[in-house]
Amino acid sequence: GIHQDALWVVRATLTAIDTALERNDVAINLNGGLHHASRDHGSGFCVYNDVAIGISYLLNKGIKNILYVDIDAHHGDGVFYGFIDNPDVYIIDYHEDPRSLFPGTGYEYETGEGEAKGTKRNVIREPFSTEIDMGELDDFVKGRSFNFIIMQIGADGLEGDPLTHLKYRIESYVKIVNKVFELSTKMCNKRLVLLGGGGYSIENSVKAYVKAIGSLVGHA
Q: What are the catalytic residues?
């Protein structure tokens, strides 16, 4: 049933995290990235939030300075607000303007709370945007170091997706995945987990995942 299937997604993400830690290499779970669910309820096709569970798993292992990058067209509200006051979790979330897309959250003034102020960033992309702003990522990570990186690589921002209004070029999508991989190589010995996410055009999702992951072959 749905419960058991959702548990398998969580288990796969935790396995990917263990693999990245043990092998010092990138690990992938394309079934993961279910970033809308909260502690007490599911949301947005997400039953359990494997991303948040994975981050908590790392924190419980004593790993701090975790970077989470989310490029799904929808704001990863379950992750963002779940760790909004945690200074050990850095989040940069690229998403379509919340005024035009579910879940209607993720504004630029939200940068973290309490001791975590400045550790969170929402990067709003206007409808019909074709590029993912690499400069925002460069600015966010400047002067910081991370011990583990999780990236949600939802493909629903690509041109042709039926549920969103973004029109990312696939080259821009691949470029930012490579950029995050380079960061993991420099900062945390390739301890990087890539998770899937949204993508409501099967053709788009397949092309995006194949090109992005394929571009890492030979470098990972």
A: 36
